[in-house]
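User: structure tokens for this one?
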Amino acid sequence: MLTVRAPASSANLGSGFDVFGVALGVPADVVRVERAAETTISVTGVGSQYIPEDPKGNTVGAVAEALDAPAHIHIDKGVRPASGLGSSAASAAAAAVALNELYDRGRSREELVHVAAKGEAVVSGDAHADNVAPSILGGFTIARDDGVLQVDASVSLVACLPEVVVSTRDARQVVPQSASMDDLVATVGSAATLVSGMHRDDPELVGRGLEEHVVTPRRAKLVDGYDEVKAAAQAAGATGVTISGAGPSVLAVCRDGDRRAVASAMLSAFDDAGVSARAYQTEIGEGATVYRD
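Assistant:
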């Protein structure tokens, strides 16, 4: 029997659609596993009433099947479902690391990214690694078809979660199927700037690298008050703002001393729009952590 904590994550980061991701210091899911003849799942915590306990409909059930590692699995949710903070990915990541350890399957952390992505497909319909990669590996990650690159970056963040729901499937439906050459060039420039900023732990460069004009503006329309929240965060010192994952969370990059002011400004702007919200004052964090009982 053992326990694994896996952090929330923010994917896309504006210019890195389906590729970039960062682990957040908070919140996180905690998964406890125990060997069993067949897999059973129980769920507690935030939004647990919306999460199926049938292994066939739960991300961790798919992970257990992929690793051939049946277990009694308890998920304590700290990451709200449909938050844009990698909720299903956190559970899948924690389960992959826990079951690999419990059954001594010998998979590397990089290999477990692809196992956890299979669990993600249960919820999103596609096996994307942009959330599970940082949740397992920590730091800033670049998910490619041929593997994952990881950087131990250190940048301050604020993730503001409004009390509205945007499903991943709905958010993907508004993504355009093509982009102009000008937009493509601008996005590549932003992505390069962001990567450089992550290597330098530079919030100014990372913030500039969030800029993207193809996907983000369309997803922003699904989040009431987004434009006002972005403007308020920037006025309070944020170096860049974007939609976190599929939304509705809004992610702001900032300097260490500006987190409290940025969080307060974002909450006030959401409140002015008639939307309740909570803010996580955090930073790029570590990946999944194993605790032996």
